[in-house]
């Protein structure tokens, strides 16, 4: 991937090189050759959104190689735009897998969660999927026995949605996250101009490229030891331990004044480490 998300050309090349692999029989309850997991909107950790052009290409590639794309759309409703329409109009990858297309075969699943909208303790989500996937899920032990579904919380959320409280909460939450994000960005822009980042348009996270020669793991260690501040080193987001010059900063929990104070300390520490390097 690059600064704009997954690179379709590299995905296709990867699949082409492995297209001869036949690990099992395809069909029935297992209709897909393989699966791709994506966070197309407000990606964790980078915060980027996949463009319409790339979304279309990913769907085309998924159809060509019989690939199931499972999208973690948990941040999709957390755009910072003050305009309700534009905040909700960002198309998910799922929307590009159009049942009206001549070559449609249902290759995209959209997974979302109320835990990212209301709080991590609310363990309830929803799934939008093609019929072939829904049939597998609905006939599975998870759904058929009833033991894996959160009935009480489902009823609670049904009432919240029907009373219009979800929309009100989302409007307030988006505005709050925007203020908190701006608090983090303003300090970094002022006190740490040698670092690089793209200002997020939604979601929970800021993906910060550290000035050379600093490493994310060293920064995280010093932050926890000297500042009691926690962030994540970029290399934990990569199986190959890439992005070791990045850190992920979350702005979703603390209020703006707390975040500002933390970012001042963070920036001072980075500048001190640069001076010593």
TrEMBL record:
<dbReference type="GO" id="GO:0047536">
    <property type="term" value="F:2-aminoadipate transaminase activity"/>
</dbReference>
<dbReference type="InterPro" id="IPR004839">
    <property type="entry name" value="Aminotransferase_I/II_large"/>
</dbReference>
<feature type="domain" description="Aminotransferase class I/classII large">
    <location>
        <begin position="39"/>
        <end position="256"/>
    </location>
</feature>
<dbReference type="Pfam" id="PF00155">
    <property type="entry name" value="Aminotran_1_2"/>
</dbReference>
<dbReference type="GO" id="GO:0030170">
    <property type="term" value="F:pyridoxal phosphate binding"/>
</dbReference>
<dbReference type="InterPro" id="IPR015422">
    <property type="entry name" value="PyrdxlP-dep_Trfase_small"/>
</dbReference>
<protein>
    <submittedName>
        <fullName>Uncharacterized protein YER152C</fullName>
    </submittedName>
</protein>
<dbReference type="InterPro" id="IPR015421">
    <property type="entry name" value="PyrdxlP-dep_Trfase_major"/>
</dbReference>
<dbReference type="InterPro" id="IPR015424">
    <property type="entry name" value="PyrdxlP-dep_Trfase"/>
</dbReference>
